[in-house]
Amino acid sequence: MIQAGHLRKIYGPTAVLDDVSLEIATGQGLALLGANGTGKTTLLRILATLLRPTSGSLHVAGTDAVKQPDAVRGALDMVGHGSWVYEDLTALENLRFWAVMGGHDTGRGRLRAALEQVELDGSADRRARTFSAGMKRRLALARVLLGRARLLLLDEPFTGLDRAGRKWLVEFLLSFKSRGGTLVVATHSFDAGLGVADRVAILSGGRIVLDRHAAELDRGDVHRLYDELALGPGTAS
Amino acid sequence: MRAYLRRAGIVVWKDVLSERRSKESVNSLLFFSLLLLFVFQFALGPERARVEAALPGLLWLAFILAGLLAFGRTFLIERENDCWEGLVLSPGDKSAIYLGKLAGNVLVMIVVEVVLLVLFAVFFSLDFTPALPALAAVLALGTLGLATVGTLFGAITAQLRARELLFPVLLLPAVVPVLLSSVSATQTVLAGQPLGEAAPWLKLLAAADLVYLVVGVVTFEFVLDGA
Q1: Rounded to two decimals, what is the model's pTM?
Q2: Measured between alpha carbons, how far is B58 from B40 in angstroms, rounded to an integer?
Q3: Which partner from A171, A220, B73, B188 sits 20 to 30 angstroms from B102, CA to CA?
């Protein structure tokens, strides 16, 4: 689904991403770990075609995403730091807006069903301004359900969620993956991230310093490697 | 084409609904208009001839100042919760978003212009009724011209830190042809002359509108993607 080769992103004198290569197969889940400022969000934004790399290549679903970003945008969706929620619209109105913009089915039944799937059907006619961060994230995921995205990019999706919310989100993402969807999850929440990942990558200083199958690692390994690779030697606890 | 129009329509629907509920722009614009009229009245005094001579310029000064406030806010709603990213990633021709935003701005400006005309009539004891049909035509063309440029520059500056400063600096020189022809055409129709007398100015205005509209439609995708 994703073939990224030697991606670099430079802002002024700083290389935020430096020679990042990554291949993610269809139906796979990648947990992208790394300390703050290591380039996780930049990498996600490049994968989402929201940002052009300074150099390097990116193919999404076989299409050159650097040269033809519009051609791949229909195949991907993103839940970033912002939830793409309009505060003065209700949950249902927000969904209707994004359904029309995405060229999806806008039937009331379809919109209600999506809200039901994210357990927001009881708040369908409430304005988003009154929603908690977790509810806004659910609303963003309802938007994902309306589309035909085969690649879902998530930036810190577990932040601000309580235990039940994290569990619900893990189940949601596993269900997306079980339908053949591909996931890239940038997160600090190791347990939740590993719960949906087939592979784990650690970013440090804009480079991928570890890329392994999740099955090869237990949680202790991930914590140890993260401390060693992402935070530097001597920080392992 | 149907999907394109639906996308433009849903952008207008979303902006109008949000504005109707928050009343952020309309309330501040109406209050601003009222203050402006007080300032004009203090500056001009009660002398009728003075008011009538300055009226076309004052009207468009009020419209452009209100427009500066309205257009500058157009894309701020898209910054909240990163909705801008969603617009960039939505498939299809992005100029539909521009046309939707443009239509929303024209609607807001129509409301503000009607209120301003009523306030001018009340504050300066003026009667616009005889010139109203011709004036409406001039206002429609002038407003479209202001809104086409204002919407595009609103998008260009929305993601900038110094947008409050840059927006008027960019907008005002660009709308000179619109302002010049609008003021001249307004002067003609308020003097009681037939609309045909203002034809050269109206032609210039229509040409400027068309050029700005085409530039907006063609360049908006790059603005949205590159901002």
Answers
A1: 0.88
A2: 8
A3: B188
- How far is residue A13's CA from residue B35's CA, in Å, rounded to a whole number? 49
Mean pLDDT of successive 10-residue segments in chain B (227 residues)?
Answer: 91 93 86 88 83 90 91 87 90 93 94 92 88 93 96 90 86 93 94 89 95 96 82
ipTM: 0.87
DSSP string across B94-109: THHHHHHHHHHHHHHH
Task: Map out the domains of chain A as residue ranges.
Answer: 2-230
Q: Is the Cβ–Cβ distance between A160 and A133 less than 8 Å?
A: yes
| SS3 state of residue A77 | strand
Pairwise CB contact (< 8 Å): A73 & B87: no
Domain parsing of chain B, residue ranges: 2-226
CB-based contact B171:B149 (threshold 8 Å): yes
Indicate the CATH number of A2-230 among 3.40.50.150, 3.90.79.10, 3.40.50.300, 3.30.830.10: 3.40.50.300
A89 and B90 in contact by Cβ < 8 A? no
Round to whole Å and give the CA distance between A43 and B167: 31
Amino acid at A48: A
CB contacts < 8 A (A, B): 71
CA atoms within 13 A on the CB side of B165: 3
